[in-house]
Protein 1
Amino acid sequence: MNRQARRPVAIAILLALPLLLAGCELGPKETTQYGPRGTGMEQVVNLNIKQDPGIPPPSAYQLETREGQRAREIYPELKVLGDISVEEFGLLMANITTWVVPADAPAAEQGCNYCHNPDNMASYEKYTKTVALSMLKMTQNINLNWQQHVKQTGVTCYTCHRGKAIPEYSWSFEPDEDQTTILGNKQGQNTPVQAVGWSSLPNDPNSYFLGDREIKVAGRTLHPGATTNGIKDAEHTFGLMMQISGALGVNCTFCHNTQGFQNWDVSRTQKMSAWHGVRMVREANADYIQPLMATFPVNMGRLGPMGDPLKVNCQTCHQAQSKPLGGVSMLADNPALAELGAWATVAPAQTPSAVIAGGTVRTTDGVVGAVAVVPAATAALLADKVQAIRAAAATPAG
Ligand code: HEC
Ligand code: HEC
Ligand code: HEC
Ligand code: HEC
């Protein structure tokens, strides 16, 4: 390129530079105001990147009555779904197949055979059936015990799976890389990942979704010394908040009033919903997914690099919608997913053995938890911890 030709190029680059540096997003926006004018209580949505909630597949057919012979009378080995009618049971199996079995499953594993040996439907020789049983309990538990979050809308397997055996969005522990450099421990910062909006915030937001890592950071009194949390904790909390916002496709003011991020009185009710959501996710991971660690096959993409199963966060269900699937409920056609089967009274929840088993969560603060199964005695202690999570889930304190 000669000098003459270079000049217009240079000028064009110079003119474009402010646009790039300003980080402005071009294109149409949609603004919704939630609070009094001037308080910044609004949502700004970029219509160019707004995502479609998607349309759930229809039920195989409509169930006309829930009367009739109970499934247990024909299949005495049922553990969860024995109390519904044979017909409803068959319908649910058909729907589950649509929701979970991948369209490209190998021929021998297509349809019902993804979980069943066709010659012995009662057998648990395929690991997928064991997993599905725990998933059934998890789904029922969410729909019944977490209505403060999922309301009457509820969830089905489809909310997470969307026609795939492994949901598109999940997380697992990261290998414990040596974070200490000559400049010190960088606390997961300056390693931008999508989860925290490519910012330089700590990149470990998922560590809040197993166990009970404290999210609150603001001081509750006038005296700054009264809180043990420092700026470092605040940065981790902000990383989590970036992830939550992205998962729901919203801005901070969807839940908070910037007048006081910690203040429940001036927050939107959505903040309360999110608070329950965090506890619901912790329980799903601790009681229903983490204990499947030994069930999943290795080297098949079912376990993360540390050997723990792929777990749930907000994005697993929400997928950039403030309500998953745009708030559409699929429970009317699948009522059994919103009832506690006999399992709940006979054998309450699962032994939370692996709860925090996979344990102390690895945080970028260097708290490292080996992902290992905990001995029975410790498991009993952990059970208390789960009770504590549940009890604490009743109301937020402070
Ligand atoms: C994603 C895994 C999965 C798929 C796919 C699946 N099932 Fe099931 N099926 C289960 C689970 C889990 C149970 C046990 C439920 C319980 O104990 O309450 C079960 C139980 C059964 C039983 C009772 C077996 C017995 O005697 O105990 C029958 C029959 C059955 N399924 C039929 C089907 C049919 C037909 C299809 C295909 C339309 C199908 N299933 C697809 C997971 C699956
Ligand atoms: C809250 C989200 C969520 C819901 C609801 C959910 N699942 Fe899952 N499911 C997961 C995640 C995450 C995994 C991946 C675990 C892994 O691979 O380590 C999974 C894995 C599975 C697998 C193993 C698939 C494979 O190929 O290894 C089966 C089978 C399954 N789920 C069945 C079900 C069924 C049946 C339901 C409804 C009764 C259901 N799931 C509801 C999150 C969910
Ligand atoms: C979907 C709702 C939701 C969104 C969106 C959200 N937050 Fe939060 N935020 C919460 C909840 C719930 C808590 C309290 C969690 C807890 O105590 O367990 C919280 C806590 C906080 C705290 C700590 C307050 C305290 O009590 O010490 C700060 C700071 C914060 N959020 C900032 C933000 C910022 C900044 C954004 C945007 C990047 C954001 N939040 C987006 C729900 C949300
Ligand atoms: C198991 C699926 C699932 C997971 C995981 C999940 N949610 Fe939800 N969430 C729902 C459903 C379903 C609704 C819709 C309830 C309704 O109809 O009002 C909802 C609603 C909400 C709402 C209210 C939205 C509104 O418009 O009023 C907020 C806020 C929210 N979720 C935040 C979260 C956060 C934060 C997380 C992660 C900590 C999370 N959710 C994880 C299923 C889920």
Protein 2
Amino acid sequence: MSTVRLACIDGPDGCAGTVEPRWPGYGSKSYPRCERHGEARLERERETRRRYGSWDDERPEPEPVDFDPSDAGERWEAV
Ligand SMILES: [Zn+2]
């Protein structure tokens, strides 16, 4: 029996730990990453969600009804 060696998709720089299919924090697919890069990817995804909310959520700040983007050439951005 031979063991299939997976290559970390974020490697080879900075790899640490075993490389195995890891869930990146979204979707239903797993990608081969080492322990360190897998953790880093999850952390990045958590940070993104904390900042922008989940894709399924409604936007936290709705546009004001009287907001007109053509008014001042600005875009409404939820902070
Ligand atoms: Zn790696």
Protein 3
Amino acid sequence: MMADTEAGATVIDDTQAPAKTPTVEITFVTNQGKTVRAPHNSNLLRVSLREQGGIPFKCGGGICGTCKCRIEQGLENTDDVKPKERKHLNDDDLRAGYRMACQTFIKGDVAVSWEPRTTPR
Ligand code: FES
């Protein structure tokens, strides 16, 4: 026989609840405005790689500077600028919305552009 269990106060702990992951919309302006959805707090370069967004890159680790891009819309939806980014971006760049895609996490909708890579001579 099952004993009655005194559970005490009913505490609903919903901090662990598997809430639906919110998603964000990322528009790759330089790639004909291709728009994709990604989980909240996604790394911008990773999304670009996964979805063939087209942001140029080499190291993926904040060193080479190749992934410099400009957040055309939604700069407020990006996370804090990392010290590694400051090696490639000055204050004017940052004010203008430039970020290093491999170091940037997206918390809301953004539109991103970049300098298309020139073909090596
Ligand atoms: S890919 Fe090298 S700094 Fe981002």
